[in-house]
Amino acid sequence: MTRDGSAPEGKRGRTVGPAGDMSFSGKVSAWLLRGGQLLPDGAVSGPVHPLLRLFSRWVRRPLLPALRLWRRNIQLRVVATTLLMSLAVVLLLGVVVVGQVRNGLLTAKAQAAQSQAVGGFSVAQKMADGADDTRPDDIARTGNRGTQDSATWLTGLVEQLASGGQGVFSVVALSSDSDEPFGDSSPGTRGPRASGDVDPERSVPLELRRKLETKSGTFRQYTEIKRIGSDDGVSALIIGKRLNDVNSNQYQLYYLFPFSQEEESLKLVTGTLATAGVFVVILLGAIAWLVVRQVVTPVRMAAGISERLAAGLLQERMKVTGEDDIARLGESFNKMAQNLQVKIQQLEELSRMQRRFVSDVSHELRTPLTTVRMAADVIHDVRDEFDPVTARSAELLRGQLDRFESLLAELLEISRFDAGAAALEAEPIDLRDVVHRVIEGAEPLAERKGTRIVVRGAEQPVIAEADTRRVERILRNLVVNAVEHGEGRDVVVRLASAGSRSGGAVAVAVRDYGVGLKPGEAARVFNRFWRADPARARTTGGTGLGLSIAVEDARLHGGWLQAWGEPGGGSQFRLTLPRTAGETLRGSPIPLEPEDSRRHRGLDESGRPRAGAEHKASTIPVQARTPEAGDAAAVPEPKVSWPAADPVALPGSGARVVPQGGSVRSEEAAHGDSVRADEPDREGGAEQEAERGVDREGGLRGN
Amino acid sequence: MKGRVLVVDDDTALAEMLGIVLRGEGFEPSFVSDGDKALAAFRETKPDLVLLDLMLPGRDGIEVCRLIRAESGVPIVMLTAKSDTVDVVVGLESGADDYIVKPFKPKELVARIRARLRRSEEPAPEQLAIGDLVIDVAGHSVKREGQSIALTPLEFDLLVALARKPWQVFTREVLLEQVWGYRHAADTRLVNVHVQRLRSKVEKDPERPEIVVTVRGVGYKAGPS
Predict the structure, then answer these.
(1) Residues A548, A550, A552, CA angle at the centre, nearest 5°?
(2) Calpha distance A544→A534 (Å, rounded)
(3) pLDDT, position A317
(4) What CATH architecture applies to the domain A425-701?
(5) Does A398 touch chain B if contact means CB atoms closer than 8 Å?
(6) Treating both helix axes as pointing N-terminal to C-terminal, what angle do B85-93 and B61-71 enclose, rounded to 10 degrees?
(7) How far is CA A111 from CA A97, A187, B37, B124, in A?
(8) B185: number of CA atoms within 13 Å, CB side?
(9) Which residues in chain A touch residue B81, judged by CB atoms under 8 angstroms apart?
(10) Cα-Cα end-to-end distance for chain A
(11) Rg (CA), chain A
(12) Which stretches hold the DNA-binding feature (chain B) (predicted)?
């Protein structure tokens, strides 16, 4: 990832396009957004089997609350981590210590056992030798009873040897030739002998026995001692040696040293260690909990208080105790809150004063205006008696007073919206009635303009909870605007409703085929005192506040008022209202861009068929999003630069336009529009527009 | 046509202009510019109609309206610079029959005044019944079991309009046209407020009206006789 500043080449070749301009952090965040997979742009991660995805979701679902708690609770996280880590440490320590102790015990035992066994073996040898020397008579006497003799001697030997190590060791003697089946341990035979209740056959491993048979010397092995009549073994060290008995018969003598004592000791050590470990882990957890709590509690308090601050409770402050870092955090937090509160209060005060001033001015103006108005009317009524100049003056006076009056009324209305004093009086109304009333009212103007107003979608009732007065005001505004800017072509008022359950919406779209809107204008038409083109005159003397009020009216209903337009191709204004007052709108039954727009018909700006007419599918506005963001993002031409999110656009006045090449021109128009032009030449402009206008009939038939 | 109009307004220019217009239409205006003196002037001139500005020095228009209404059913038309809900509703509740928002056209004003004075033309003798009320239209009286109930002319007109066609549900717009004389849609709060006032006088239990019944979503109708 090469950043601009460290480009290794001499020239700074910047690739064109959004990716080339992206900063490092931008790339990182984009990478994060793609789910952390470092894939090239546009590449799709490998297809995951839907069943697998389903399974993982199914597995994850019950864990989600725990996961959320884990993510959100730092205290839990720290305590759990501390517990786990201390547990690991204690376990490791325990294993090492127990191992050491065990080794030490075993070594000591082995040494002791070795010396004991060696002593025992020499005693046994001596006894055998001594018997040879001292009791020849006995041997001679007993004669062929040597076998019997030898057996008795062996039994005596075992008993004698074992008597010295009661509990510490056991002694087992096996005759070298004792291949005959065990179990026959009658003292008369040369069977195995064992001290205590050691089961000699099962205790002495075969391997060791074979070793003793083949080799002379002392051997040892770790094994398990089995007691007679029991399957439980006791680990033991067994040391064995081949010896000769009194009759010089070979036999094997084994010393068995059980580890019961050592095991007891080891158990004790392990138990102690485990207890200590558990205590250490628990105590460490508790300590971690306490320590984290000290830090987390003020942080949580700060979070809670800032939330309340954000909710508008500006008096909220943190409690500050001491002088540590936390206290400093609290102090600076409080300072910030204090400054915020002061600033907000100042702004609120200013704005309230300003609004009251506007309202007061409007009211104060009304009384003298009433007098002037009455005087003008009185004069106007008798204008026939005046000379032509005075008579005309009287007419102008009255006409402009009308305009002044409506301007004042709308200013007052706006100030009422600004003050938040506008109240909605919603009741179920049929929008068709409103539309018909509005059209009836606009009929005289339409006749003067030679415009036909067509209503579509009025076959079924279009019912919504709305404020008749406000809805009528909105629609009157839209229809009068459409007629005014419609160049004498038809104006189509379309009604539709959608969604029968709660969350349904109704919409009225007013479509004209007049001059339309330039790029960027669709958002600005709702600005106060905005004029489409300062060089164009208005014949009905609108105040420039009409659409602003209409937007406010729509917003008061929780509805949308949006505009679409294409230069020379007319415009469409769409009012969408929730069917139930206060519901949140999710979509509109009428697309913002009409189906007979140039783009939908595959024409370019000048009305000729266009190459990229396949754009069609992507132009249906996605209404699930918020109107501002959604519609701005849905503009399909990405190359034209106009403010993607118009900073001056009023919320709720989402707008889209088909852009035209000269976006500079629209900017100029937008900046110069607040200047009022006095009766400029309208006719010329209208004709020009008409020449490059669309085929009107075709456009309408296209529906 | 008789037409003594008392103009209560502190703005002398407006008052004078009102005088010019009213005289031009054949009314006899008299003027008072102070709320404190309004009641005395009212008693003295005994006007057929009062034009009352809501913003007055001394006693304000609402108070004056209440005082006049306390002793007379004379039509009162408020002049107001504020058409906000609260102002107008308070004015209507204190007894005004109608209101007109500044700035108004002279013709509008005259039409409003005429509409309020029209009813003084003698009606034909007519007896109406609504609920347990008996209305003598010519005698301008409403009685329940022989006890007469005092209504202002406007309330009387409203009651008569409903009682004449007990089978019909009146929308607020229709009532505005028939009783107030508005040709175009106007403020339906006029109807709401005056129906409340009327109910408070003629209903046994204004919370559960039996004379003037609300038809939800449509308007009002007369209760069954």
Answers:
(1) 70
(2) 12
(3) 83
(4) 2-Layer Sandwich (3.30)
(5) no
(6) 20
(7) 21, 33, 129, 140
(8) 11
(9) 363-364, 366-367
(10) 52
(11) 51
(12) 125-224
Strands B212-215 and B219-222: antiparallel
pLDDT of residue B91: 83
Rounded to 10°, the helix B189-202/B153-164 angle is 90
What percent of chain B clears pLDDT 90, i.e. is strictly above it? Answer: 12
Instruction: List the domain boundaries for chain B.
Output: 4-118, 127-222
Per-residue pLDDT of B174-215, as tens digits, reads 888 888 877 665 677 788 888 888 888 888 888 888 888 888
Q: Is A559 helix (H, G, I), strand (E, B) or coil?
A: coil
Q: Give pLDDT, residue A631.
A: 40
DSSP summary character for residue A569: T
* Residues above pLDDT 70, as percent of chain B: 92
Calpha distance A355→A481 (Å, rounded): 28
Positions of chain A with pLDDT lower than 70, given as ranges: 1-48, 131-149, 165, 176-191, 500-503, 532-542, 602-703
H/E run at residue A369: helix A325-381
Exposure of A299 by Cβ count < 10 A (0-12 exposed, 13-18 middle, 19+ buried)?
middle
Q: What residue has token string 């609290």? A: A330
Residues in chain B: 225
Closest Cβ opposite residue A371 in set B17, B105, B185: B17
User: Domain spanning B4-118 has what CATH number?
Assistant: 3.40.50.2300
pLDDT at A685: 37
For CATH 3.30.565.10, the residue range(s) in chain A are: 425-701
Q: Measured in whole angstroms, how far is the alpha carbon of residue A599 from the centre of its chain?
A: 38
User: What does the alpha-carbon distance between residue A374 and residue A397 come to, in Å, rounded to a whole number?
Assistant: 11
CATH of domain B127-222: 1.10.10.10
Name the pTM for this structure.
0.51
Residue A510's pLDDT is what?
Answer: 92
Helix (H) or strand (E) holding A492: strand A491-498
For residue A224, the SS3 value is strand
Place of tokens 């456009």: A699
ipTM comes to 0.76
Residue carrying structure tokens 């349904």: A504
CB contact at 8 A, A501 and A646: no
User: Boundaries of CATH 1.10.287.130 in chain A?
Assistant: 325-415
CB contact B105 to A (< 8 Å): yes
Residues of A in contact with B109 (CB under 8 A): 374
Cis peptide upstream of residue B103 (ω within 30 degrees of 0):
yes
Report the CATH fold assignment for A325-415.
Helix Hairpins (1.10.287)
Strand order in the sheet with B28-32: B28-32, B4-8, B49-53, B76-80, B98-101
User: Whole-angstrom Cα distance, residue A687 to residue A569?
Assistant: 14
B85 touches chain A (CB under 8 A): yes
The shortest CB-CB distance from B217 to any of A369, A371, A427 is to: A427
Question: Quick one: pLDDT at residue A663?
Answer: 38
A-B contacts (CB, under 8 Å) = 55
Q: Angle at Cα A77 formed by Cα A71 and Cα A79, nearest 5°?
A: 160
The pLDDT assigned to B188 comes to 76
A403 token code pair: 């305009």
